[in-house]
Amino acid sequence: MPAERALRISGEKKEEKVPPHPRQEPRISGPLTVENLERVFTDCVDFAKRQVALGGDPARRATLCYLSGMVKMERISDYLLRPMAQDQTLAQCPGVVQMMERMRQGALYNLTVEERDRLDQVVFDLVNGWVALFFPGKDKVLTLMTATEEKRSISPPDNEPDVKGSMDCFVESIRTNPPLVRRRLRAPELRIWETFVG
Fold first, then answer.
1. Rounded to an integer, what distance in angstroms lies between the CA atom of residue 73 and that of residue 149?
2. Torsion angle of C-alpha atoms 87, 93, 99, 101, degrees rounded to 10
3. pLDDT of residue 43
4. Fewer Cβ atoms within 10 Å of its own Cβ: the N or the C terminal residue of the chain?
5. pLDDT-derived band of residue 134, with 50, 70 and 90 as boundaries?
6. pLDDT 10s digits, 90-101
7. Which residues contact 195 (CB under 8 A, 6 or more apart)?
8. DSSP 94-155
9. What is the mean pLDDT of the chain?
10. What gap in Å lies between CA 72 and CA 149, rounded to an integer?
11. pTM of the full structure
């Protein structure tokens, strides 16, 4: 709710509405490249990328970027990587634009496909559990929804009945805990390091 400030002008009371502080848009600026995306997620152990030969043709490559733990790996393997590697029509497309259009029309087995042209859009898609597909020499990216449903239910604690309200709690699996935090914060500024001890 905007703050209100009262002014007195010649004995009259006049109210002036002060707008809230505007958020800077885009929050993350720069050209849409794999290198800039890696820079945003510098030192994040859960950021991953992989190159794929489209249609089995090593001359035609795409780069897949995602945050592990936020995506369902079986969906990426079965619905994205397999069709990209085995679909011969992708290798026969005359150019990258036709290849991207073929993927949007159903070459990839995914319900939600978006075409992005800004870095901040891609960053926030990754934070929400999407996969970004970069093509060499293109300033547009395909993002595909592959978020995992693996999350703990929010319920009152069993062994602390005096603590009221719902809560998330960490589990024994180290791979499950970082996505719990990422789902709550939804911030690309969150850095997750991994240290081996012993």
1. 11
2. -110
3. 87
4. C
5. very high
6. 878 888 888 889
7. none
8. SSHHHHHHHIIIIIS--S-EEEE-SHHHHHHHHHTTEEEEE-TT-S-EEEEE-B----PPPB
9. 81
10. 8
11. 0.76
